[in-house]
Amino acid sequence: MSDTEPEFTAAGVGIGIGVGLSIGVALGVALDNLALWMGVGVAMGISFSLAFSQAVAGEDEERSDGEREGEAGRGQ
């Protein structure tokens, strides 16, 4: 994966949007202005989806690197 091309995973996008919308709804209900905070929740969800999808993709890469190292050690 190149540094200039972010990789989006379905799990990361789903988690990010879910977390962002949950925070937006919680703030909207608590502050009695759901219409305002739902928009903020959508924006947070988009930001979180980028962060979580890259984190999930990074974990997958680390696992595959570790598996390759383990296979190389067994082959000796």
Overview of this protein structure:
- The protein is mainly alpha-helical.
- The chain contains two helices and no strands.
- It has helices at residues 10-30, 34-74.
- The protein is elongated, with a radius of gyration of 18 Å.
- The chain starts with 9 loop residues before the first helix and ends with a helix.
Terminal Cα span: 29 Å
> Approximately how much beta-strand content do the residues carry?
under 5%
Helix content percent band:
over 70%
Count of β-strands:
0
Radius of gyration: 18 Å
Mean of all residue-level pLDDT scores: 78
What coarse outline follows from CA principal-axis ratios? elongated
Secondary-structure-derived class: mainly alpha
Tally of DSSP helical segments: 2
> What summary fits the major beta sheet?
none
Low-confidence stretches: none
User: What's the number of structural domains?
Assistant: 1
Order of helices and strands: HH
Which features would summarize this protein structure in a list?
single chain; mainly alpha; 76 residues; transmembrane; transmembrane helix
Short note summarizing the structure:
The chain is mainly α and 76 residues long. The protein contains two helices and no strands.
